[in-house]
# Entry
Amino acid sequence: MFDQVRAAWTPHGLSLLRIISGLLFLEHGTAKYLQLPHLAAFDSMTWSSMIDLAGIVEFTTGALLTVGLFTPIAAFLASGEMAVAYFTTWAPRSLLPILTPGGDLAVLYCFVFFYLIFAGSGPWSLDALLKRK
Amino acid sequence: MQKLDELCATWAPRLLSLLRFMTALVILQYALTKLFGVPYLEGLANQPAFSLYWFTGVIELVLGTLVLLGLFTRYAAFILSGEMAFAYFIEHAPHNFFPLLNEGNEAVLFCFTFLYLAAAGSGPFSLDAALRQNKRA
# Structure
């Protein structure tokens, strides 16, 4: 019985993971562009820097992942962005991700989104809704 | 399109194992710094024995290792997910509503990744899978 419940709910768990990680990711984008929430580190954004580009990716892919639209493509971009972020920003500062605040998070995002490229968006998503039509 | 679907179907379980492995590695760093101070992280390293943080370090070390190896993954991941939920509400949520500002981002992501692993299991590259194959043979 336990196995049956688990098998039935695993795809929904995938959707849950996608929604939560998408929302967290979106938050990085909104903090950079809408100051929501306000983070002092992003006050000095110049609108032409690497971090700008990162904000655009986080904003759009975060929103797409949250609602589950074009999940594989959005996850691919988000995962790639996090890989670049890790190797350009965090890796040069220390060997282990734990020693730089944010390095850990980049690794986790990167692999969660990498999984989502192949696993898709699960039943609670616009992708699933479109497929049904 | 057919080909792409097939590709995804073969690779999704393998990448589940990769996700499991990497998440466990990241959490093991916290266990090692809390219990042994290696790597040394200011404010978190070398917790006194039997304190709350020491116990979380023990949980992370034992269950993190199990998840890393993919042994009893469902149970280990379920407990770790619960631990992370506690960590978020005790340690991070009281400071601020936004995870970005209360620095609970990582706890949330851990929590839901482990919850998913508890449901989805450990994938093909794991001791769980090896044991299952052995039983069948």
